[in-house]
From TrEMBL, chain A:
<dbReference type="Pfam" id="PF00005">
    <property type="entry name" value="ABC_tran"/>
</dbReference>
<keyword id="KW-1003">Cell membrane</keyword>
<keyword id="KW-0677">Repeat</keyword>
<dbReference type="InterPro" id="IPR027417">
    <property type="entry name" value="P-loop_NTPase"/>
</dbReference>
<dbReference type="GO" id="GO:0016887">
    <property type="term" value="F:ATP hydrolysis activity"/>
</dbReference>
<dbReference type="InterPro" id="IPR003593">
    <property type="entry name" value="AAA+_ATPase"/>
</dbReference>
<dbReference type="GO" id="GO:0005886">
    <property type="term" value="C:plasma membrane"/>
</dbReference>
<dbReference type="InterPro" id="IPR003439">
    <property type="entry name" value="ABC_transporter-like_ATP-bd"/>
</dbReference>
<dbReference type="InterPro" id="IPR050107">
    <property type="entry name" value="ABC_carbohydrate_import_ATPase"/>
</dbReference>
Automatic annotation (TrEMBL), chain B:
<feature type="transmembrane region" description="Helical">
    <location>
        <begin position="121"/>
        <end position="141"/>
    </location>
</feature>
<feature type="transmembrane region" description="Helical">
    <location>
        <begin position="259"/>
        <end position="277"/>
    </location>
</feature>
<keyword id="KW-0997">Cell inner membrane</keyword>
<comment type="function">
    <text>Part of the binding-protein-dependent transport system for D-xylose. Probably responsible for the translocation of the substrate across the membrane.</text>
</comment>
<feature type="transmembrane region" description="Helical">
    <location>
        <begin position="233"/>
        <end position="252"/>
    </location>
</feature>
<feature type="transmembrane region" description="Helical">
    <location>
        <begin position="72"/>
        <end position="90"/>
    </location>
</feature>
<feature type="region of interest" description="Disordered">
    <location>
        <begin position="1"/>
        <end position="21"/>
    </location>
</feature>
<keyword id="KW-1003">Cell membrane</keyword>
<keyword id="KW-0812">Transmembrane</keyword>
Length: 512, 416
């Protein structure tokens, strides 16, 4: 048996218009914990989906050598049969089934009759639960467990499949400190039993604490492999690898002249809609007229949750805190109220939350402010066309007419429709959540230009982005969020990617 | 730019890129133009084919003046229900209770008018009030309690059927006074005198055609002023002439039978009003927005609950209208009245192009869908086809219509 359990060589995976992975290679030794680091969108999850067969052989280029043999997984079942098990960030458990039923789902313990042997299943499940240190009855339904315990059930499920290589995607993102520490401890014990782990995590403290080696990805390419055992690897060292790219100067120039304060948020706190934890914790910030304020944070830091909870309480429960617009406290308990007060929120997921894809540009543009086009509930449809046409021209939306179905436009043009919709509400504060996600470079530049034009008109813009260069290129000030808390505020002149990343990854060191 | 080069030679590889290119340049070859409009025009074509088919199969009896009048009278209440149903379906819901509500409203009216001897208009008002109350009940549970409409209206179907039996005390009531009967069986004729045909009916038909032409022309002029693409002028004229010819033929046939049915006027007013309501009002547009993408509608400030509530109130109102027409036509109230009407109404909406997932559909489409069902049932009855086969055929037509819609959508998704 060789010392290397997995080698992925020159993996290239492209989606229409985007190269998600280019020539990525990683080497994982047998019985180690291998961490994969990178910014959002660096290609970590894509790489793991290639490895686990979610993207079947043939849909990517390059080769995978597992356990000394080249493998071509055609699907999850294929990879699991070989002992590669992936645990996704969103846990894949069925809430109303018991622990045992979940563990053996698709892999049922059957007797000779072909019927499920529940005694055996529950006994096996109990043994597995013991091995992951979870003291629960195997017949307990999943809904009765917290996220931390559910995570352990997932691992027990993986163990039931005689796992050789366990892949965990952000396993601690939703866990509190105690549960995280438990989980990391378990991973160490699994390693001692000879199970190799690949772990994707944004929490650099965790990684330096637990990983034996690290592969750093950036923009879909392998940057470097760091060996933690042979040399001291600091968080700063990892960050340098993650962000060390050239800052392309494709951000249009803008003369910054912020005016008076437009939006002030005080002590904003939001709880998770179903779990007992604070997703946004006592956040306060301000935005001035003619200013672009960035909000940086890793996945799960609470950026979108902050924005959506401010926007008419579209997210979360038990929301406390105060909103001030031009010094006057406002109520924004519903989306309609928020819009009426001059707040607009352009979502990060335009297809699910931003657009009616089966309708045309015209109706989408007017959707958030239809009453402006109506008298006594009667829509002035020619005026609506004029508004939509004006947007199409101003935003340079590429479509044959405003009657074109939005679902058929490209991502960049869809995003311009979303922006048109919100600009038509004539907002004072425009919150842009990942405004350039999944759109090509040309369209990005156009979006940046539009944002600059708005700011020049005195609008206040809040920009949430996972791309630090974008924030550095566009913003006047940048706030950082980590685990729902505000961890820093930097004027762009002082901000660097390294500094931001340090603030974004600021979490308590996990217990050793 | 290799694909530009290859497209200029018009050869193979560019074919699959045609939709994308058309999107950006505004040029669409005839094939994509036809395919894009297939969904809308498809049902009209289907209706024409079915009408022609049964005209042949019945040796023209199905197009005889008497039979056309009959179709109108016999299916008017289904069409009224289909108007409400298509709005419910556009909003992403369903209503299984309308048959029971038709029975309940009719029986309340019958009890008041027949049993207790109140004037006919009181029965009408009471039926409408009951319909609105039922709609508010459904609306409350769907919009504010958040219960899926399928469940709420399934419960309503049982609930209101049960109440019908109680109101009627399990017996049929009959007959209504003559004024009440006139609602569904009455005709407006002889107002302008008759020379073997009813001139008034023809006049109304002519007014309708003129109105259609004028409003179409005005829309067209406005569209051109706002620099929107419009159909070519000959095509526009052809469309108006075609519609005009069909309407006038229809009016001519009616005029030679018993004249203009009152229900037809009621139906025409409803179709016109609801056509405008769905396309031209904030309310109507919000229904489409909710059905098309609920979270996006919420995040656009649409008051989803309020809109859903009124969608169901409206369905209750139209159920009451249908209940009045039905009780008038059957000249009484029966415990089993309106049985399975909901399925005919739902089928009409889906055949007429409404999408199962919501957000798509038109009142006119639902009317055409309803007429397809009506012409088929009527034609098969004329041919003496067995009841069982009629059901089989109707079921298959519904399935094929929705399968076509789903296929169409998948194809559109693939070319994205």
């Amino acid at each position: 048996m060789s010392d290397t359990i997995l080698e992925m060589r020159n993996i290239t995976k492209t989606f229409p218009g985007v190269a998600a992975l280019q020539d990525v290679s990683i080497v994982v030794r047998r019985g180690e914990i291998h961490a994969i680091c990178g910014e959002n969108g660096a290609g970590k999850s894509t790489l793991m989906k290639v490895l686990s067969g979610v993207y079947p052989a043939g849909s990517y280029e390059g080769e995978i050598i597992f356990d000394g043999r080249p493998v071509h997984f055609r699907g999850i079942r294929d990879s699991e049969a070989q002992g590669v098990v992936i645990i996704h960030q969103e846990l894949a458990l069925v809430p109303h089934l018991s622990i045992a039923e979940n563990i053996f789902l698709g892999n049922e313990r059957c007797g000779r009759t072909g019927l499920i042997d529940w005694n055996r299943a529950n006994a096996d499940a109990t043994a597995l639960l013991e091995s992951v240190g979870l003291r629960e009855n195997a017949v307990t339904p999943i809904v009765a467990l917290g996220v931390g315990k559910q995570q352990l059930v997932e691992i027990a499920k993986a163990l039931s499949k005689e796992v050789k290589l366990l892949i965990l995607d952000e396993p601690t993102a939703a866990l509190n400190d105690v549960d995280s520490a438990h989980l990391l401890d378990l991973l160490r014990r699994l390693r001692d039993r000879g199970i190799t782990c690949i772990m994707i995590s944004h929490k650099l403290g965790e990684i330096t604490a637990i990983a034996d080696s690290i592969t750093v990805l950036r923009d879909g390419r392998t940057v470097e492999r760091l060996d933690v055992r042979s040399a001291e690897v600091t968080q700063d060292r990892i960050i340098r690898g993650m962000v060390g790219r050239d800052l392309h100067s494709f951000y249009p120039d803008r003369v910054s002249s912020p005016g008076e304060e437009v939006l002030r948020v005080e002590n904003w706190t939001v709880r998770h809609p179903t779990q007992d934890r604070r997703v946004v914790d006592d956040v306060s910030f301000t935005v001035r007229a003619g200013e672009v304020v960035g909000i940086a944070g890793l996945m799960g830091a609470g950026r979108t949750e902050l924005a959506m909870s401010m926007f008419g309480r579209s997210y979360g429960r038990d929301i406390t805190g105060r909103l001030f617009l031009r010094g006057r406290e406002i109520r924004a308990r519903t989306v309609a109220e928020a819009i009426g007060n001059g707040i607009a929120y352009a979502t990060e997921d335009r297809k699910r939350y931003g657009l009616n894809l089966i309708d045309d540009i015209r109706h989408n543009v007017s959707a958030a402010a239809l009453r402006k086009l109506a008298r006594f509930g009667w829509v002035h449809d020619n005026e609506e066309i004029r508004v939509a046409e004006a947007s199409r021209r101003d935003m340079n939306i590429k479509a044959p007419s405003v009657m074109a179905t939005v679902g058929k436009l490209s991502g960049g043009n869809q995003q311009k429709v979303v922006l048109s919709k919100w600009l038509f509400t004539d907002p004072e504060v425009l919150i842009l959540d990942e405004p350039t996600r999944g759109i090509d470079v040309g369209a990005k530049f156009e979006i940046y230009t539009i944002v600059n034009r708005l700011v020049a008109q005195g609008k206040a813009v809040v920009m949430i982005s996972s791309e630090l260069p974008e924030l550095l290129g566009m913003c006047d000030r940048i706030y950082t969020l980590a685990a729902g808390r505000l961890t820093g505020e930097l004027p762009v002149s002082e901000a660097t990617q390294e500094k931001l990343m340090q603030l974004m990854a600021k979490d308590k060191e996990p217990a050793r | 730019m290799t694909d530009v080069k290859s497209s200029s030679t018009g050869q193979g590889p560019s074919a699959d890129q045609a939709p994308a290119r058309a999107l950006h340049t505004g040029i669409s070859d005839p094939r994509t133009l036809v395919m894009r409009n297939l969904r809308q025009s498809g049902i009209f074509v289907a209706l024409v084919v079915i009408v022609a088919l049964f005209a042949v199969l019945t040796d023209g009896v199905s197009l005889s003046p008497g039979n056309i009048t009959n179709i109108v009278l016999q299916y008017s209440y289904i069409l009224v229900l289909a108007i409400g149903m298509v709005i419910v379906i556009i909003g992403g819901h369903i209503d299984l209770s309308v048959g029971s509500v038709v029975a309940l409203t009719g029986s309340v009216s019958a009890v008041l008018v027949i049993q207790q001897g109140h004037p006919w208009w009181l029965g009408v008002l009471a039926a409408l009030a009951v319909g609105l109350a039922v709609g508010a009940w459904h609306g409350f549970w769907v919009a504010y309690a958040g219960i899926p409409a399928f469940i709420v209206t399934l419960a309503g179907m049982l609930l209101f059927r049960g109440l019908t039996l109680r109101v009627l005390d399990n017996i049929s009531l009959s007959p209504f006074p003559a004024e009440y009967q006139r609602i569904a069986a009455g005709f407006l004729n002889g107002l302008l005198g008759g020379q073997g045909f009813d001139a008034f009916t023809l006049l109304i038909g002519g007014v309708a055609v003129a109105g259609y032409a004028v409003s179409g022309f005005r829309t067209r002029v406005a569209r051109i002023r706002y620099q929107q693409p419009v159909e070519s002028f000959p095509l526009f004229v052809a469309r108006v002439v075609l519609v005009g010819a069909v309407v006038m033929y229809f009016a001519w046939q009616l005029a030679h039978a018993r004249g203009l049915p009152i229900v037809l006027i009621v139906l025409a007013v409803l179709v016109l009003a609801y056509g405008l309501l769905t396309r031209r009002t904030v309310f109507g547009r919000q229904v489409y927005a909710i059905g098309g993408n609920l979270p996006a509608a919420m995040l656009s400030g649409v008051k989803v609950r309020t809109v859903n509530f009124w969608v169901f109130v409206n369905m209750g109102f139209l159920s009451a209208v249908a209940g009045i027409i039905y009780s008038s036509r059957s000249n009484g109230a029966q415990p089993a009245a309106g049985n399975m009407f909901e399925l005919d109404a739902i089928a009409a909406a889906f055949i007429g192009g409404a999408a199962v997932t919501g957000g798509v559909g038109t009142v006119v489409g639902a009317m055409v869908g309803g007429l397809i069902m009506a012409v088929m049932s009527n034609g098969m009855q004329l041919m003496g086809v067995d009841q069982s086969m009629q059901s089989v055929v109707k079921g298959l037509v519904l399935l094929v219509a929705v399968a076509f819609d789903v296929y169409n959508k998948r194809r559109a998704g693939a070319s994205r």
